[in-house]
Design brief:
Blueprint (H helix, E strand, L loop, with lengths): L1 H8 L7 E5 L3 E7 L7 H12 L5 E7 L5 E8 L1
Antiparallel strand pairs: 1-2, 2-4, 3-4
Length: 76
Amino acid sequence: PVVFLVGLTGCVDSQPIVSDYNGASVKIQTDMFTSKADEKTQAEADRICGKSGKHAEYASSRSPKDYVYEHLYLCL
């Protein structure tokens, strides 16, 4: 059963989640299978920063806890 569940996790298309936004930066969370910032995280950061007429610039990534990655973008 465990092998079956692990096999299914590769089929799940996870969506980036905004975990924090303060007007100057935005943090986007992804699951443990998406450790690198990619087009989806960039697009979500651009969408959020774009609400204030700014664009998102990637700054860093970290894994704070619970198998999640957090990607920081600056709104410039």
